[in-house]
Design brief:
Blueprint: E1 2-8, E2 11-18, E3 22-26, H1 34-53, E4 57-62, H2 80-93, E5 99-104, H3 106-115, E6 121-127, H4 136-146, H5 152-155, H6 165-173, H7 179-185, E7 190-195, E8 201-202, E9 206-207, H8 211-216, H9 218-223, E10 227-231, H10 242-256
Parallel strand pairs: 3-4, 3-5, 5-6, 6-7, 7-10
Antiparallel strand pairs: 1-2, 2-4, 8-9
Helix pairs in contact: 1-10, 2-3, 4-6
């Protein structure tokens, strides 16, 4: 079963719902218009997730933020508060009261912000982003430096280069976020994972410590109740390999759903 399109005040956000069962919101970098944006290769990635999830889960995917068929959000408005509010409004429009949220990279960072602002999550999967020691300042610096001339790898999902400034807004809004206290208050079941080689670059090749930070903070996270998984030999692009990632995450989700 597929439901299509939500009209959210201030920005039209396109979404789809696939399957029946336990509500699961698949966040960025997966999106409803994956195939339109990335072609058949991208469509195959989304199908790989859906084919492995929709036997048990009712999966929500959205074109967010300001991508695909969705309307554009002014770049100065993409704060963590705005992101969390928009994601909850999409969940409302899809008929999701309580739901699991799974995001990767920026989607993982957005999931943390969402989980710290609502008690509606039944589980949180934070892929490719460290729940403790998040590199917010580093990515903010990289985003500011690249705003005038965004890298091609980032502009593939943007309507125009100026839209890249939305990342500056987001990371400015979380720069002084009380991470340790906020993460400690997240009560739902939670999982963090990354490829063991998943320390990518941002902007114009600014190194960003993601996998190494998760590894360094693993003991703290596990003591707080997180399940932490490292995928050997894989880099930050592991999110594009549903055959590898979905079984690992489903083992967690199936156990807590």
């Amino acid at each position: 079963m597929v439901f299509d399109s939500a009209c959210i005040p201030s920005s039209h956000i396109h979404f789809e719902v696939h399957g029946e069962g336990v509500p699961l919101f698949l966040g960025f970098p997966l999106m409803a218009s994956q195939g339109e944006i990335f072609g058949e290769e991208g469509a195959a990635v989304l199908r790989g997730y859906l084919d492995r999830l929709t036997d048990r889960y009712r999966v929500l995917v959205a074109d967010y933020p300001s991508i695909g068929r969705s309307g554009s959000i002014p770049t100065a408005e993409l704060t963590a508060d705005r992101v969390s509010t928009d994601l909850l409004r999409v969940a409302d429009a899809a008929g999701f009261d309580r739901f699991a949220f799974w995001g990767f990279s920026w989607g993982g960072a957005a999931g943390l912000q969402l989980a710290s602002r609502t008690d509606r999550l039944t589980a949180l999967v934070c892929g490719g982003w460290p729940p403790l020691g998040g590199p917010y300042a580093e990515i903010l610096r990289a985003s500011r430096e690249a705003a005038a001339d965004p890298p091609a790898s980032a502009t593939v999902v943007l309507r125009e280069p100026a839209q890249y400034a939305q990342w500056v807004t987001f990371y400015e809004s979380v720069l002084n976020w009380p991470e340790a206290e906020a993460v400690a208050r997240i009560a739902c079941p939670r999982m963090a994972y990354a490829g063991s080689e998943g320390d990518p670059t941002a902007g114009h090749e600014v190194p960003i410590s993601i996998a190494s930070t998760i590894r360094d903070r693993r003991g703290e996270l596990e003591a707080m109740g997180w399940r932490v998984t490292e995928i050997p030999g894989r880099d930050h692009s592991v999110c594009l390999d549903p055959a590898t990632v979905v079984p690992l995450v489903r083992d967690f989700l199936d156990a807590v759903s």
